[in-house]
């Protein structure tokens, strides 16, 4: 019987899958399979193992993770040690064939027409507000020399504050540049003061009608002072300007010689300012140049204001203005007309840099139309039919002149290129 049992054990037990046994009959003869079974009974706590997984001890063991990010196919590194997930970012900027990513365009680059229109609107708006507020001040404080000083003083203070914060950074000035800018500043001061004298003496609309003659003085100075040949077509376009201003002046209800002559002197002064500005062209940016011109012009405007209006200001001017509107309104009005004067000139310069000469010429004519129209509506100035026709003819002549001159400049630039 023992012999019959032994073959069955041999046939059913394989070395790799031998179970653990606690008792074996002593009658079974030893062989290599039973010896392997007995060797596994060395310890008393031997138990059946049904899983090949290693046993996990009861004591906690600190687990260490690799600092290398886990990568998933098709993604950038997504799962990091902190457990954060980074999804691939879709960039709005376009990339070229070499992989260079173009920076995103700002609002001005995407909508240049809207930004240019905004500059034109602010130019007109600030100019109209300045002219209206300036005239209202003259209605209760008719001292144009002192008001001209306030205009420049507020602008200079604004420039000094901008220099102090570094927007823009102040450009150094030497003796040679000072000598070049001084004639420009003198003409700027004279033209500015005479314009204010005219604004205080007559209606704003009439002053701007007289100032429509400025292109005529520019052409005359270019021809007879600088020696530039002015085409006949340009001279012919100025004929409606002269005729229109003459018609408007004959029947202007607010006409007086002080206002008329002051506006004419302003035209001459601004014409020579343009001539000297061309000679004073330097590498300095326009913002710093305008700041230095304002400072020098302020120094030239103070003496006439003190000599001509000083005694009257002390006795009557300040007291009368404060009695009419109060101290606070009087000071704030002077401050705001200075700010609007400086800001509209600055915005006009920014607008000129953004557009072609032809567009700027049309915009300048439309600005004068806006100022004349708003001044008539706000102040209720009565104008005769002949004055209205003469003003329209003068503005039309300025428009024709500006268009012809702008086309000539563009053709000259095209030839030079």
H and E string: HHHHHHHHHHHHHH
The major beta sheet can be summarized as: none
Report the sheet-strand fraction. under 5%
Low-confidence runs = 1-35, 41-51, 59-63, 69-96
Distance between the termini: 121 Å
Number of strands: 0
How many discrete domains?
1
Mean pLDDT: 76
Percent helix: 55-70%
Q: Give me the secondary-structure category.
A: mainly alpha
Keywords: Chloroplast, Membrane, Plastid, Transit peptide, Transmembrane, Transmembrane helix, Transport
Main location: plastid
Protein name: Sugar phosphate transporter domain-containing protein
Subcellular location: Plastid, Chloroplast membrane
Topology, element by element:
Elements: H1 2-12, H2 32-39, H3 107-110, H4 112-140, H5 144-165, H6 175-201, H7 204-211, H8 214-224, H9 232-250, H10 257-279, H11 286-325, H12 327-354, H13 357-379, H14 385-416
Helix pairs in contact: 4-12, 4-13, 5-6, 5-11, 5-12, 6-10, 6-11, 7-10, 7-13, 8-10, 9-14, 11-12, 13-14
Keywords: Chloroplast, Membrane, Plastid, Transit peptide, Transmembrane, Transmembrane helix, Transport
Protein name: Sugar phosphate transporter domain-containing protein
Domain Sugar phosphate transporter: 116-402
Give a quick summary of the entry:
It is built from 14 helices and no strands. With 417 residues, the chain is mainly α.
Description:
With 417 residues, the protein is an all-alpha fold. The protein has one domain. It is globular, with a radius of gyration of 45 Å. It is a multi-pass membrane protein. InterPro entries: EmrE-like (IPR037185), Sugar_P_trans_dom (IPR004853), Tpt_PEP_transl (IPR004696), TPT_transporter (IPR050186). This is Sugar phosphate transporter domain-containing protein.
